[in-house]
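Structure (tokenized):
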């Protein structure tokens, strides 16, 4: 972690994680917090997580819902429509409680009528079709009165008031739930079209209607990813400095040993058994890899908070090129699961968005100063390395400018990279594999993995990171189902 002014300011606050869904109290009767799931929402989530969205599991979701009496309510009008061919049969209103498998070109309408109390539907692409949802009309009462709940295979979000979901594309499945909790004066206005379209590779994650969607998480994990103590990151953007203890719970130290020689890289925890790092850090089949989570100070080992687990599998991206550094991403599978604690937790995978001009944070135990020579991708080099985890705030640069800066380099920058820079601040030797994160709608998402760069904090040469959103699908497919 290179900083121009080496301002290493001790930051002593050991923060808890207020508001984290993981910390939500259990049992007893208490008011539902904003955004927290209702009982129905929880059943809904359970049904989603239990059911794989392949066609062999056809109707599994609907059956699960019926078992929990969620799909019972079918208004006479909607029920009567079932099976009847409408004049406009490609553009049909949905029936509450149904599961739909949509072909390309098919369209359904989810709308809320004034007398509706609850309505849940499941929509899947038929395997060769992506789903697009567009809510053209959205005006509900306050969340304590009614809400619209949208899940896809990896994320979920609740909407109420006038803030509906934005246009959502590239979904393989959508689970929609409207629920009226108490009387409301306002007539609900909710009209969403769901359309089957040719797969187009757009990102996943439920959109909040503000452009980019929040983070993506492995299926069935609930919303535990991307939670950090309040105040983490952005407030302390002056030079690089020591991170707070437990400030970045997804930060992992990846220790690599080859025939007794040790190196270290950074890594990002994404599930209890998976850590994302750079492929160049683990590019040898004889490595022994140990992951340390919850670690802060390398010089005073924190036995109580640090979890040390060996990696049992290393999955390098199949198209990784050590020559050009293309596809510099790898997924480590741990021998045993990590325990989520205040200082150890997962980061979310990112939505597919640009991020240019946004401020992000990179963390690591890498070098505090480096020469201007082209930084080869050794994970740990001699030189001043901090013993405490450092953080640095950097701005995502213009993509074209970065591609141009590295155009004559063998390590070329493509749209599968993301670049970040700030005057006198950068990732450096030893930071490789570490996370570049930013906070998206209250959730921290992993937008980059430290990959390479010319020197460190060298003017005109931003730090280059593997663009994680380009690998969301690869990661999600590589994370064994059930891992969370
Ligand atoms: C490295 O060798 C390294 N300034 C990481 C990041 C950068 C340079 C070198 C970017 O691990």
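Design, position by position:
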């Amino acid at each position: 972690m290179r900083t121009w002014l080496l301002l290493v300011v001790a930051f002593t606050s050991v923060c808890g994680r207020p508001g984290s869904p993981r910390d939500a109290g259990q049992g007893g009767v208490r008011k539902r917090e904003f955004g927290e799931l209702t009982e129905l929402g929880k059943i809904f989530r359970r049904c989603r997580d239990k059911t794989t969205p392949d066609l062999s599991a056809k109707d599994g979701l609907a059956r699960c819902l019926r078992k929990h009496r969620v799909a019972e309510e079918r208004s006479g009008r909607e029920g009567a429509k079932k099976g009847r061919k409408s004049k406009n049969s490609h553009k049909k209103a949905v029936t509450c409680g149904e599961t739909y498998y949509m072909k390309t070109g098919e369209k359904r309408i989810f709308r809320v009528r004034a007398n509706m109390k609850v309505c849940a539907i499941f929509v899947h692409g038929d395997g060769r079709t992506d789903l697009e949802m567009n809510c053209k009309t959205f005006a509900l009462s306050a969340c304590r009165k009614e809400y619209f709940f949208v899940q896809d295979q990896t994320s979920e979000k609740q909407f109420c008031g006038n803030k509906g979901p934005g246009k959502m594309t590239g979904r393989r499945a959508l689970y929609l739930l409207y629920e009226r909790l108490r009387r409301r004066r306002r007539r609900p206005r909710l009209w969403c079209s769901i359309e089957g379209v040719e797969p187009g590779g757009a990102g996943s994650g439920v959109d909040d209607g503000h452009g980019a969607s929040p983070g993506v998480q492995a299926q069935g994990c609930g919303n535990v990813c991307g939670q950090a103590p309040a105040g983490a990151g952005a407030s302390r953007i002056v030079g690089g400095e020591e991170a707070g203890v437990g400030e970045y719970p997804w930060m992992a130290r990846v220790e690599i040993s080859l025939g007794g020689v040790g190196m270290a890289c950074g890594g990002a925890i994404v599930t209890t058994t998976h850590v994302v790092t750079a492929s160049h850090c683990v590019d040898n089949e004889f490595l022994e890899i140990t992951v340390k989570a919850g670690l802060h100070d390398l010089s005073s080992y924190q036995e109580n908070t640090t979890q040390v687990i060996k990696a049992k599998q290393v999955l390098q991206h199949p198209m990784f090129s050590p020559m050009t550094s293309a596809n510099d991403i790898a997924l480590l599978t741990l021998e045993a699961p990590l325990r989520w604690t205040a200082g150890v937790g997962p980061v979310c995978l990112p939505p597919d968005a640009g991020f240019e001009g946004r401020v992000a944070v990179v963390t690591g135990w890498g070098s505090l100063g480096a020469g201007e020579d082209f930084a080869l991708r050794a994970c740990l080099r001699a030189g001043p390395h901090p013993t405490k985890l450092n953080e640095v705030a950097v701005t995502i640069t213009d993509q074209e400018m970065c591609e141009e800066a590295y155009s004559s380099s063998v390590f070329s920058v493509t749209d599968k990279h993301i670049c970040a820079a700030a005057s006198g601040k950068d990732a450096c030797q030893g930071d490789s594999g570490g996370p570049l994160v930013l906070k998206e709608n209250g959730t921290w998402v992993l937008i980059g993995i430290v990959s390479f760069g010319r020197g460190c904090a060298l003017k005109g040469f931003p730090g280059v990171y593997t663009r994680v959103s380009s690998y969301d699908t690869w990661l999600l497919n590589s994370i064994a189902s059930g891992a969370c």
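Reviewer-requested clarification: The longest strand covers residues 261-271. Helices lie at 39-50, 60-67, 76-81, 399-405, 472-478.
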